[in-house]
Amino acid sequence: MPKIDPETQALYDEINGMIEKFKEDQKAKADCTLADKCGDMSDVTKIRFSSKKILKGHINKVNSVHFAGDSRHCVTGSLDGKLIIWDTWTANKVQIIPLRSAWVMTVAFSPSGNFVACGGMDNACTVYDVNNRDASGVAKMVRELVGYEGFLSSCRFLDDSHLITGSGDMKICHWDLEKGVKTMDFNGHAGDIAGLSLSPDMQTYITGSVDKTAKLWDVREQGHKQMFFGHDMDVSSVCYHPNGYGFASCSEDQTARLYDLRSDQQIGLYAPPQKNTGFTSCALSTSGRYLMCGGIEGMVHSWDTMKQKHTGTLSGHENRITCISLCPNGMCLASTSWDQQVRLWL
Fold first, then answer.
1. Is there a single domain that holds both residue 251 and residue 114?
2. Containing domain of residue 193, as a range?
3. What is the 3-state secondary structure (H, E, C) of the chain?
4. Same domain, yes or no, for 64 and 148?
5. In which ranges do the WD repeats occur (predicted)?
6. Per-residue model confidence as pLDDT tens digits over 120-172
7. 290 and 228, same structural domain?
8. Which of 5, 151, 204, 250 could form a disulfide with 256 if both were Cys (CB 3.0 to 4.6 A apart)?
9. Domain check: are 252 and 139 in the same one?
């Protein structure tokens, strides 16, 4: 690493000192802990998901997966330069969409199931209409959203006409897809944005970043509402709690965490039994009782969020898990990996 000059080091020390003061102030305000309040709750059973289907079709690392609002169809993106839309009930391919750039890092399905979006190292977000075909017979590209100075790391649809993206240039962009223009473009973090999760009511969203923080935003405004600290390394993924009052995050610092928006602080800390893995992606069950994280060693770990106990692992992948996505009805978990497989856990 290049040597840091004294002035920059002094600024780092000042910022870290402020963060530690914030944490101390939060701890002073916390009149109880989640473990204390949930100590008399009954334990949940070990996670009962098992790998029922393996979706085979990609021939390179699969980097992202996301479910449509119907809980049946999902889209995956791979370094083989393809998006594949799957029918998870039958394990059949519905559509294969060839991409201009193979370096896809994120995919998103619109809640209606009418559009998919993807982006990555091409510094652009491309939107396809899955119900209309072009002259070659594949899904019609309806928008190519450019103007990023870094890779696209995350994107999510608010509806068929509006999209939010986070990118490696530290920016958050809001797009009007009908007009093809940005409605907002602003610096969101002090480092690459790594993850984005929308609230159940689609009015707010959470972002996670390599600056080790997570932030709460209102879809109508540019300034963040709250900032959350805790992780010692990049925040690789965030997931809104189903009740809309909290969110989970995970990191390669070998922990996952639960934050409460109303108390403005971390309330849960989750670690694997053996400190041998970092986490790349997280998801919460529809009840919010189970937290699941995909690990770099190829297993999905699960915890009881209330009692902060490890409730098992899902094994099957042979390489790093890149992304996990729970379908909206909570009945199926999809996971993608560098082993080129997409697994469905039921």
1. yes
2. 38-345
3. CCCCCHHHHHHHHHHHHHHHHHHHHHHHHCCCCHHHHCCCCCCCCCCCCCEEEEECCCCCCEEEEEECCCCCEEEEEECCCEEEEEECCCCEEEEEEECCCCCEEEEEECCCCCEEEEEECCCCEEEEEEEEECCCCCEEEEEEECCCCCCEEEEEEEECCEEEEEECCCEEEEEECCCCEEEEEEECCCCCEEEEEECCCCCEEEEEECCCCEEEEECCCCCCCEEECCCCCCEEEEEECCCCCEEEEEECCCCEEEEECCCCEEEEEECCCCCCCCEEEEEECCCCCEEEEEECCCEEEEEECCCCEEEEEEECCCCCEEEEEECCCCCCEEEEECCCCEEEEC
4. yes
5. 55-96, 186-227, 228-269, 314-346
6. 999 999 999 999 999 899 999 999 999 999 999 999 999 999 999 999 999 99
7. yes
8. 250
9. yes
